[in-house]
Amino acid sequence: MTGCAGFEYKEDICGADEYPALSVGGTGSMCVSNNEEPPAGFVKYPQGKVPQQVGDKWDLYWQDHTLDEDGKVVDVPGAN
Length: 80
Hints:
25% strand, SCO0607-like, Lipoprotein
C-alpha cells in the first residue's frame, strides 16, 4: 500500500498558458492561449464563474447555462 489514500486527481480544464472560452449560445468550450482573444463564436467566461477543473462547480454549471449574444447568462434550450 502507498500513502496516497484519499488523494483525488482533478484534471485541469486548460493548460497552464491557456484559459477556457465558452461557445456563445451553446455549452461547447475550448482552450485559448493567454495572449490571444477567443475566436469568433466564443467568449471569455464571466469573471468569478470560470471553470478551473473538470467537474468543479462552474464546469457543472455551464453544462446547462450559456451566454447569449448580449453576454447575458441564459439556460441552454433542452438542457435537463
